[in-house]
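Researcher: I need the complex structure. Ligand is magnesium ion. Inputs:
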Amino acid sequence: MSSKRSPPSSDSSCDSDYEDKRRRIDIDSKLFSGLSIHIIQAKIEATELDLLFSLAESNGAELVTNNEQAEVIVTAISMRRRLERHIKWEIAKEKAVVTPAWITQSVANKRRLACGDYAAVCSLEECTKENCPDHSPKWQSARESSSPVPTTPRNLSYLARFAVQRASPLICPNQGLLEQLAVIHRISNTPRYQTLKEFTRIHGIGPHTARKLYATGCRTVDDLDRYYGAELGRTEEDEPVPEDEISGIRVALELRDKLCVPMPRGEVEEIDRVIAQELEEVEPGCLRTIVGGYRRGKEMSNDVDIVYTHPKKGRERNLSRRLVDRLRSLGLATHVLHITSFRSANPNHAPAGAARPDRPHWDTLDKALIIFRLPATENSPKGLHRRVDLIFAPFETYWTAVVGWTGSTLFERDLRLWAKQKMGMKFDSSGITRRRDTKQFFPRTEAAVFELLGLEYIDPTLRNADI
Ligand code: ATP
Ligand code: MG
Ligand code: MN
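Model: Output:
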């Protein structure tokens, strides 16, 4: 049984921030005020539990430990027999027994939603409807009420399970909730987690490498400087770090203060224009698309992502290398963080990152991840160091690659999941294959990619499905 909880504790640096936010939330809404809620902890993960407690409390609910005193019981249990381990059936029938989504969705919608729509156990649905503690008009049914957010032209919902079925504009309709989540998330994180997160902000360091570095004793980015600079803390038995990875991380560390300045759309376009000019010199007739956050309409980007191709087979031979060599010789590329080796251009040999658990979806496309610097012109000084990802795709999988590199990351994850679970297909940026017979498909437009996967087309600007 749960005990009444105080707000999650935090380190001192976050306290005032949290209190500020909390006060604002209190003033903003008393969504659950006067309501006693009992949350059954079974089957709910610790972080989600913290979140539910915080959302309920900060919106005025009284959290009670005794389920008999509660008007609303929140539980992730859906089977009667399991629920009966926590609450007597006769008592449950006198309550509204709802899923955790009732809390999160009510907060998201800024009004208490009808309990009946969130009944946790099928056979308690009627009771839950009847026992919903208030029938005033503010208890609108989520299903009956008109949507509080603007609808999109198509049949896309904001709440569908897969991000690929949702319209996700840059400014999310649940922005308020997300802000609350961000605060709660921050304060409920451990120092270890904070450190790992800081490490993964350095290009080339994924969650796996971050954990490894933490285990070695690194606690700050300065420690990483020392680690990658002088190889401190390494022993003979340690797995050798691939040279390519070390130098990439080292450069990213060196330039970290410069690389964290985001760039406006105009600069992305200028970088693309300069690269396109050199590409034309190296191999005339290439096609390209700026992908990533820029294509999703983001005002500011952290890097430039360009997918390019050539309609004629054979022209791509060593193209990545030839382009990067030219950019280097002109002083446009100052560093190369990673470039696919000739060997790994073969799909049977994935690039260096492929085997790393933190890069499970690294595709087999030929790519060069570089640091780029715009030259000085009459009107502007030399540009800042910028990260640029250059991805070559064979002509027949060009649109698959464009979809795969447009993101967002969550959208891509759900695209793979959707393709696998609903369509029996495998999607990644380097190709779409049918799982049962490994037949490959080559959609010739972006819309055809969506059609092939049985999805309604979603404009790039509505693929911003990340928090
Ligand atoms: P920003 O660059 O402004 O931070 P972004 O959405 O462009 O935002 P990126 O890290 O540049 O973020 O990634 C763009 C997209 O490219 C991602 O959403 C992901 O789908 C894809 N992507 C990135 N790295 C890889 C990779 N190694 N393999 C396959 N796809 C990748
Ligand atoms: Mg990007
Ligand atoms: Mn990128």
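Model: Summary of the prediction. The first strand starts at residue 36 and ends at 39.
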